[in-house]
Amino acid sequence: MSETNAADRIIKRVAFLEGDVTKDKMNQLRTACINFSQQSEDPILLVIDSMGGALDPALAFYDFIRLFDINLHTVAAGRCGSSAILPFLSGKKRMMTRHSWLWVHNVRRDIQVFVGDDINHIKRKIEIDLEETMIVTQRVISTIQERTNQTCEVIQKLINEGQEFNAYISPEKSLQLGFVNEIVDSLTSSKQG
User: In order of start, what are the domains of the chain with their CATH numbers?
Assistant: First the structure.
């Protein structure tokens, strides 16, 4: 098959994640992946330009792609950060355009406290939320480790820099760290790591 035909086939099987990561968007992408997978085993291309949003739906999407061994290729085209990094990392092949950036940071969670709540009740809510945040943080770190083969220390440094300094990860550094397999200019030409 020629490169042009391969690119044409990929373009017909493309989905987009743009803007905030939400439960609805992740459900729509799951449905699209199922539909595409039933049509053929050719790769599905997911193009991502998102600075994240809801973490739980992003984790569920990651698990879904891996559980069903969906032939998903992902492309960061713009900014890909926060919870959007998880759908990005779910790809069997992960690519990035030259002018894109990745961003990782600490897991953030909100605690709902109501006027009139008992102080002991509030303390317990904070304890539970902290425990859950630590568990989810470890899951995110281990997912990044699994997909990049980097150490926990390297990933934690990236997370800390992202949190403290809003430090983005360039395409070249993303390639070096194993976040991506290729930096792409088009679907038929790339720079592999």
Answer: 3-192 (3.90.226.10)
